[in-house]
Structures are given as C-alpha cells and as structure tokens.
Amino acid sequence: MRVISGTARGTRLATLPGDDVTRPTVDRVKEGMFSTVQFLLEGARVLDLFSGSGQLGIEALSRGAAYCVFVETDSGACKVIHKNLQGAQMDADVVQMPAESYLSSCSDRFDLILLDPPYHHGTVQALLPSLDKVLAPGGVIMAETEYGAEMPETCGDLHRKKQYKYGTVALTRYEKDLEQ
Q1: What is the fold, at CATH topology level, of the domain defined by 34-176?
Q2: pTM of the entire structure?
Q3: Rounded mean pLDDT for each run of 10 residues along the chain, 180 residues in total
Q4: DSSP state string for the chain
C-alpha cells in the first residue's frame, strides 16, 4: 500500500497484519475517491473515520489538505497511523475512540469526511445524522461500503449526489449545501 499522489507520492504505508482490524482500501477505489474530491482538498479540514492504517487521511494531506483528524478504536492501528504519518513526514491528530463517541463530542467542522467502516453493519447509515452535524456547509462525505448497501437519498442537510461502483465496493458521495 502506498500514497498515490501529492507531496508524499510513492511513500509506502504500513498496515496491521491480517484483516481482523483493518481492510485497506485498494488503490483503484482510493484513486476513484480522490479524483471526485480533488478540487476540494487544497486547504481542507479532513476527518478520517475508521482510519485503519490512515491511508485515506494521509492521501488527503499529501494532496493539499491543511489538517486531518484520524479516528480509530484499535490501539495497534493507531500506532500504525503514527508510524505512517512519520514515514510521510506529516503531522496530524490521531484519536483513539469509537467514531460514535468522537462525533458526539466533536465541536470542529470538517470540509471533507472520509469513512471506510466495517462492511455489513449499516454503520454509515447510522452515523449520517452525526456526520451532518460536523460537516461544514459546502462539505463532502465520501463513504466506502459494500455494493448494494441501502444508502438514503437525504439525511438532515445531507444529500446523496452520486454512487460509484468498483466491483463489490461502493463509494457514496454526500454533500451539504453551502447555505444553511
């Protein structure tokens, strides 16, 4: 696994052994995700939920995001995120806690939220109301799920704009109107 583009292009990223804790996003899906948000990244505040190895947030930072918060429950994965940030010569906040707890206590607003939660649990759908509260006006959510997962058209001020299919993986893009 590596950083695809930007200042850290080509940097190899460590992962946890096995796939019990993390399931890294494959390059094809990651490239698709970032091609859809490329014009939002410069100076953006990014939230990487269910961070795993941190590859999505690190890719965002490499491509020009100003700030990223990584949220992950597993202590081993948090250590890997720190290692990967160091290897990419980046600085960011790594928070070890459940995504739900972080979102309920968060007072920050983010321009871009990236999430790749465990599949088959309805996690994205359950978190949409909380994500709506921390997404800045004009912001975007990119959620990776299994293809075929039922994703609502709207939730609060969020509107589903597009869904992309990559084999058994779906990327769903939600946007929040600029004016609230």
Answers
A1: Rossmann fold (3.40.50)
A2: 0.93
A3: 92 80 68 89 97 96 98 96 97 97 97 90 92 97 91 94 91 88
A4: -B--SSTTTT-B----SSSSS--PPPHHHHHHHHHHHGGG-TT-EEEEES-TTSHHHHHHHHTT-SEEEEEES-HHHHHHHHHHHHHTT---EEEES-HHHHHHH----EEEEEE-PPTTS-HHHHHHHHHHHHEEEEEEEEEEEETT----SEETTEEEEEEEEETTEEEEEEEE-S--
